Amino acid sequence: MRAALRGTGRDIVLSLSNNSRSRLIDIAAEVSRLAQAWRTTGDINDSWGSMSGIGFKQDEWARYAGPGHWNDPDMLVVGQVGWGPKLHRTKLTPDEQYTHISLWCLLSAPLLIGCDLEKLDDFTLSLLTNDEVLALDQDSLARQAVCISTNGDLRVYAKGLEDGSKAVGLFNLSANTAPVTVMWSDLRLSGKQTVRDLWRQEDVGVFADKFEAPVAPHGVVLVRIFPAP
Question: What is the tens place of the pLDDT at every residue in 40-91?
Fold first, then answer.
């Protein structure tokens, strides 16, 4: 298939699906030489269990990500979704949808819109068009974020960006609001750093040593961290 597509002389992306029960990770090195993208999981659905179960188990794929090489944890399940003739509003809560988009962008995943575009509401459109959030996914280094800190149901994901800044997601997988902290030492940073909230598109402030924020149940605080002036 790869040879046939290349033989056309056209720019074509070969994306491989993974709907079988086999562990594609076992042959990931071979797959990454054959295609530009590959599914890392079975099919997603619009439930917290499915989305979080997929999104927070991608670390083992990180070494295969890079320019022209994309780990694909399946489509986005926001907006009006459905399989077959019946469409319904996603069962993910607003905070879970913020988590979904934030995590997929941190993972440098292909952003495949899985909803009916004719029925886009303002909230879903805002999720899909925040340029500062999308910039994490489209960063030219194409690195995949990995979990750098775990505290019970709290997770911190981070990845380096082309301009030297860090993208960090503070995630709360629990059912209660909780403070989540990222330490500069875990990011291999030192000194005062400016923290910018990407969903709100505003600077939060300058911090030394760490940044902590309350995170809603199943929610996220998505930030970019760079040296203070």
Answer: 998 999 999 999 999 999 999 999 999 999 999 999 999 999 876 788 999 9
With the CA atoms of 36, 77, 137 and 70 taken in that order, what torsion angle do they form, in degrees rounded to the nearest 10? -20
**Beta strands across the sheet bearing 70-72:** 15-16, 37-39, 70-72
Do 37 and 144 meet the contact criterion of CB atoms below 8 Å apart?
Answer: no
48-55 helix and 94-106 helix, angle to the nearest 10 degrees: 20
Domain that holds residue 73: 2-137
Our CA angle for 64, 69, 71, nearest 5°, is 65
Residue 180 · residue 150 · CB < 8 Å: no
The CATH number covering residue 220 comes to 2.60.40.1180
pLDDT in tens, 141-156: 999 999 999 999 999 9
Query: What whole-number distance in Å separates Cα of residue 78 and Cα of residue 55?
Result: 14
Q: Is 32 helix (H, G, I), strand (E, B) or coil?
A: helix
Find the Cα–Cα–Cα–Cα dihedral 76, 79, 80, 83, rounded to 10°.
10
* Residues 151, 128 share a domain: no
Q: Which of 137, 166, 194 is the last residue of a domain?
A: 137
